[in-house]
Amino acid sequence: MNRPQTLAKLKGVLTDKLNRLTNVTNPESRLTDPHAFRELSMAFRHIGQGKYGTCIECGNNISIARLSIKPEAVRCIKCQKQFENMITN
């Protein structure tokens, strides 16, 4: 599977994840972490802009391995580490 096909599949996974987390009929599965909701929102904004899979910081492709584990990722691993260091210091 090439990158565009994989990204299309991951968009579906992301949509399913959002649907599960915002399920009003199952309160136990609702999204309660505002940070997680913000990440999902940013990922969907990237989908709408045609930029899904691209790091918001450096503009490089986010690895398929990272997106497979965390489809809502909006930063590559390098930029995510820098971001986490910045907010914890």
Task: Describe what is shown at a glance.
It is built from four helices and no strands.
Task: Characterise the protein shown here.
By secondary structure, the chain is an all-alpha fold. It has a single domain, classed as DksA, coiled-coil domain (Four Helix Bundle (Hemerythrin (Met), subunit A)), CATH 1.20.120.910. The protein contains 4 helices and no strands. The mean pLDDT is 85.
The CATH topology name reads Four Helix Bundle (Hemerythrin (Met), subunit A)
Give the total of domains.
1
Biggest β-sheet, characterized?
Answer: none
Alpha-beta classification: mainly alpha
- Percent in strands: under 5%
Task: State the end-to-end CA separation.
Answer: 40 Å
Mind sketching the topology for me?
Layout: H1 3-21, H2 34-49, H3 64-69, H4 77-88
What attributes does this structure have?
89 residues; mainly alpha; Four Helix Bundle (Hemerythrin (Met), subunit A); 0% strand
